[in-house]
Amino acid sequence: MSQKKKILIRIGSLRHGGAEKVLATFLKNLPKDQYEIDLLLNLYSGKYLSEIPDWIHVLYLNKGEMITTNRLQDLPEKGFRVLYQKLLKKFPKLLYNGKLKSKKYDIEFAAIHGFRDEILNSPLHSSKKIIWIHNDLRKTQFHHYTDDEIRKFFGFDKIMVISEHIQKDFENLARNNDEKNRIVRIYNPLDTEEILRKSEVRSQKSEQNQQPTTDNQNPTFISVGTVFPQKGFDRLLNVHKRLLSEGFPHKIRIVGDGYDFENLKNLKTKLDVDDTVTLLGFTENPYLHFKTADFYVLSSRYEGFPTVLFEAITLKKNIIATDVSGVREMLENGKLGLIVDNSEEGIYEGMKQALQNPESFKLYQNQLKDYEMPFNLENSVKQIQQILDDL
After folding, report:
1. Considering only CA atoms, which of 21, 69, 15 is closest in space to residue 259?
2. What pLDDT does 73 receive?
3. How many helices (H) and strands (E) does the chain have?
4. C-beta of residue 147 within 8 angstroms of C-beta of residue 174
5. Does 207 have pLDDT greater than 80?
6. Which of 21, 31, 44, 378 registers the highest number of CB atoms within 10 A of its CB?
7. SS3 389
C-alpha cells in the first residue's frame, strides 16, 4: 500500500460561513485511509468544528470565540491574538518548527484566498501548494486585488476556483499554458440530501426552539448569510421600509450572525420595522426557515459563488438575486430565478414584482420542478481528490 499523503490545510476558523461549510463538507466525505491531514486554524471556534472527522488532526494558534468588539476588557486578548498571528506570519519557521513540530508535508492547502502568503512563504519548499478561491477578488470587502496582486496566486501549483467568472479573470492574467493549466474550476461540494432532510425536521429536541412561524396573510422574504456589509442586509431593510410605506405589506426574516449584527439591529429600530423584520441570528438549521418562506432574496454586494443560492434552488424557492459573481451561472441566466441589478433599486424592483405580480414567479417554479444540479457531492469530492493525488 502506498504511503499516505501528508497535507496541511489552513483556514481562519470554522465559523458559519460558506467557505467553512464547504471545507467541512469536503473533509467529511474524504476517505480516511488515503491521507494524513493537519487542519490548522488561526482561531479554534465555529459551528463546523463538530463536523470535522476525528481522524483529522485539528491544530490552532488561539482558542475562544471571535472578538468583534473593541470593549476595554476584550482589548488585551484581541491584541495578543493579532500580534501572535502576525509574528508567526512574518517568521513562519517559528510556526513550522514549533506548533507543526518540523513535520514535512507533501501538500500545503490554503482553504481561502486570505492564506495566500502564509502558504507561499512556507519554509517547506518541496511541498506542492494549492489554494481555494471562493470570492471575486476584485470586490472583496477589505481589499480589492489589483492585477499584480492576483498574479501572485500563480505561485501555487493549483488554483481551485468556484465559478466561471473567477476562472475567466484568472485565465486572462495567465501568461502561458502552464499557468492556465493551474486554474481548475470545481463546484462546491454540497450535500443536497442533507439540505432536504433538515428542511423536514420537526421533532428533534435540538430544533424545538427553531420552529419557524408562518404568516398566511403577508408574504415572507428570507435571506441567509453571515451578517457583514458584503451581504447587503442593510439594503434589504431599506427596501423593506420603502415597500411598506408604499402599501405593500410583507415580512423579512434574516438568518445569520456576524460582526455587523448590532448595526443591523440598530438599523431595524431606526427604520421602525421591528414588527415586520425578524433577525434570527445563528441557527443550526436554517432550512426550516427557508421552507416556510415565500421568497428567497440574495441581496449581496459581491460574491464568489454563493453556496446559499444552491440551497435555495435545492429547496425550490422563489428566488430574487442581485447580479453578482456566480449568480448568472447558477440561475442559468435567469431561467431559475429573477436576477436584478446589483443595487438597492434593483432589490426594490425585484421585491416589488414579487409583491405585485407573484404569478410571474410560476415561470421559475416550472423550471425548478424538474431541475437537477449540474454536479453532485461525490463528483466534487472526487475532483479535488484527483488534484491531491496527481500533485
Report:
1. 69
2. 67
3. 16, 13
4. no
5. no
6. 21
7. helix
